Amino acid sequence: MGEQQEKLTVAQAIIVEGKYDKIKLDSIIQGVILVTNGYRIFKDPEKMALIRYFAAHTGIIILTDSDRAGFRIRSYLKGSIPEGKITHVYIPDIFGKEKRKDKPSAEGKLGVEGMERSVLEDAFRRAGVLTETAPVRSGLTRLDLYELGLTGGRDSASRRRALLEQLGLPTLLSTGGMLEVLNTMMTRQELEAFVHQHRNGD
Fold first, then answer.
1. How far apart are CA 151 and CA 170, in angstroms?
2. CA 36, CA 124: separation in Å to the nearest integer?
3. Mind listing the pLDDT tens digit for each residue in 19-67?
4. Percent of the chain as helix, strand, coil, to the nearest 5
5. Which of 142, 146, 128 is closest to 85 using CA atoms?
């Protein structure tokens, strides 16, 4: 129907959970895409050796679903790669059902395969992997989060959740994970302005 959109080039190898995630990304991304086959990666030393190789040589991007299973696989990969560069790309919590499935997933969230191209492009762009240079680290710290009321306070958990939703990030993201992503997205001043704008607006 519409004209074919140009593929985006990514230098790092991208790690996804399943073959349908790979099929989806293949239509958008020009690059290496490896599949964990869900939890099978926990007992697949050959695939892990390949992932470690790419981590050490080109760097890897971990792109799993935003449900608990996806975070468990993401955590396992992060803990199993002693050296090399790991970039985390996150998809937002969008509820629905993939077309090929009879019913939604256990948590009702769309996985990577169910994301629109524009959502995936935005996730890669936010992580800074579509540019020639690595994302600039803004130097945000846990103290910044504390001073902005995002940790250590009575309403901190709900404020973090609201911030993650407003930024289109998964709400299961830990404080540390959120800090890591924010550091590739904005400066302290930008975060402060964003927090105050939404707090005053809501």
1. 17
2. 19
3. 999 999 999 988 889 999 999 999 999 899 889 989 988 899 999 999 9
4. 45, 10, 45
5. 128
